[in-house]
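Give me the 3D structure for HAD-superfamily subfamily IIA hydrolase.
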Amino acid sequence: MSVSSKAARALPFLSADGSGSSVSGGSSAASESGESVASSATSVSSGEAAVGGRHRAPQFAFAFDIDGVLLHSSEPIPGATETLKYLQQHRIPFILLTNGGGKSEADRVADLSAKLGVELDVSNFVQSHTPYQRLVNPDVDLGYPELEKYLSRSIGNTRLSRDSTILVLGSDASKARRIAKGYGFESVVTPADILKANPEIFPFDPLTEFYDKQEILPLPKPIYSPKTNPDLKLEDCLKIDAIMTFNDPRDWAVDVQLVTDLLLSHRGYLGTYSAKNGEKRQWQNDGQPALIFSNADLLWSTGYHLSRLGQGSFRAAVGRVFSRLVTNSGARALPMKFFTFGKPELPTYRHTWDVLQRYYRQLLEEDREDGIEPDSSSSGSSVLNRVHMVGDNPESDIRGVHAWNRIVDARSPEDKEAKPIAGWNAYLVRTGVWAEDKMPLDRIDEAARPHHVTDDVRAAVNLALEKEGWTGRIE
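Predicted structure for HAD-superfamily subfamily IIA hydrolase (475 residues):
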């Protein structure tokens, strides 16, 4: 959102502002009429106000999915450009929240700006792997205890370090490496690096054209291979601390092989096999790498008329292979252990909340510098009191809203006063993944059912503005 040069700044790391506890509970039902029934997502009138033609920042915000909401492939969905320009013009905070990835935030925002015809900024953009930044920054709260527990059990620490060696997966692992290094990771390995060092790891013809385009670098340490280098000490060999997926991998065969090799390894040393494998409940309990995915989308909307397989499908494939390897050894079936970011996961909504809050406070600071005081309805608060999420996928966009709202509703009065966080409203549009004829509203799980259904993003925002008591509309 480029409403001024003051606000056009990157927000790589943000301080904690909300609860990280996980609370189970019910969710709210969908309504075609637009009535919100979630207690944490109720609407309070807040009128439009301007001083000298300048609109003060209201106390509500929007979050938009991209594919299927703002864009179809490279083409703007009708009304999308006008919607974003209207919000910018009226200083209404918004964020682009996508399960896409594989490019740096700066490159993706530049691409979106060109496609949508709207000047956008990294300060209000979160893609699936953006929260990976938190994993390597010791000064930032991870924001979710379950993530700390998973990392502690996997690698013996509650976060990764700059020196951790990570294997990155994605449609272009070379690009993923550059992104990871931009986040602060200094030792980053790709599948192409490993295949170059030891082609026997994958005994089939590789996708030559694909790998010829990859940047291939020497491994930081050699791969453990008692057959070819029996004198090499294990501690002097390549050890992977985490496997991080940035977006949908292209060569599933190679990546599935490498991931399962590492999940079966001794402490992440590629080329080893853990002696604990086969013991009761000891699979993935020998210091194997943390396995991290950036989203769980089985499908995503493209230019093709049917939705395509996404990263969630890759995760399912890896999990199924791992489970079959476990049972093939004579052990009882055990699920693969992993952690997932992206929508609908709470760490991503927590990170998004932090980004929105920081941006909102920037807008308020600009107001104060220009002599524009908050209106009486805000009570001087610098905390947003509502976020309107517009998405096209009930299982990611909408389910995440309800999970967040359960946390909001379950917090103690003292916690709410000390660290206020806002509830979200969920709007489902008909321009993307969700097709009403294939998945009627009454067949959607209640925890993934929207508060409102609209034809497109413009209709969703106009409905939200009406509920906020805002007088203007997007034409």
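Residues 278 and 329 are 7 Å apart (CA to CA). Let me know if you want a second pass.
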